């Protein structure tokens, strides 16, 4: 694997574009994976897990694919990324308050599989008296205690990851989950692909793939929605946060809401019951 990393690092991207697609936990990870899988199929574009160097090298040197999307669901770029000269990075974030709620409900009902990226929540931990993360979460008396637990554990890691991202690096496109969920014509998605340098006809195909794999497109039918989706709402926290919990959250992560420009001050608490 190390030799593959070295070979990948030595490469330079060529036209058509190569793009890293980076998401964080509960910021549209499964959604974007489906979108770019569809694009790869419909447009003949390479697709690889960004942390699988041998597959990345295969995609970048293939003569049968046109460009590549390298997907990272770990909220970061792989070590070899600086060696891919000219590569773009597409990065998605989401309102931390909704990340908390989405993560909580997901962790409460997640079913373990061998390939699941969240299978670690089912491993016993000494810090939880031998219970797994999910078991500990389910054992707590009521939603408020479960929200506090999620906030202080998995959620805190995700927020730290998002705040640590380099938002000023060149050739990066920053998207917000909320804006993409409102992109019902696919115009914002289309503009992002065109900015990377994809030809207009390819951008049109990409737009259609985006729409077909979105909850407001072909997947608007709940029977066609992915199993991990618990709510179709773009923003849930105004309905699910109480004032008391909001004050706790503001103390812990108010700085993150302001740093990410989701709020300018603590006045959002007045919107809570």
Q: How would you characterize the overall build of this protein?
A:
The protein has helices at 2-9, 29-43, 53-61, 96-109, 133-139, 143-152, 154-163, 177-181, 187-196, 200-212, 237-240, 243-259, and strands at 18-22, 46-49, 68-72, 88-93, 172-176. With 273 residues, it is α/β, with parallel strands linked by helices. It has two domains: 2-94 and 166-224, 3-Layer(aba) Sandwich (Rossmann fold); 96-161 and 229-271, no CATH class. It has a five-stranded parallel sheet, sandwiched between helices. Strand 2 (46-49), helix 3 (53-61) and strand 3 (68-72) form a beta-alpha-beta unit. Helix 1 packs parallel to helix 3 and helix 2 crosses helix 10 (200-212). The longest helix is centred in the C-terminal third of the chain and has 17 residues, at 243-259.
Radius of gyration: 20 Å
Name given to the CATH architecture of the largest domain: 3-Layer(aba) Sandwich
> How many strands, what sense, and barrel or not for the largest sheet?
5 strands, parallel
CATH topology (level 3) name of the largest domain? Rossmann fold
Order of SSEs, N→C? HEHEHEEHHHHEHHHHH
SS content category = alpha/beta
As for the number of domains, it is 2
Q: Between the first and last Cα atoms, what is the distance in angstroms?
A: 53 Å
| Coarse shape | globular
Number of helices: 12
Q: Which percent band covers the strand fraction?
A: 5-15%
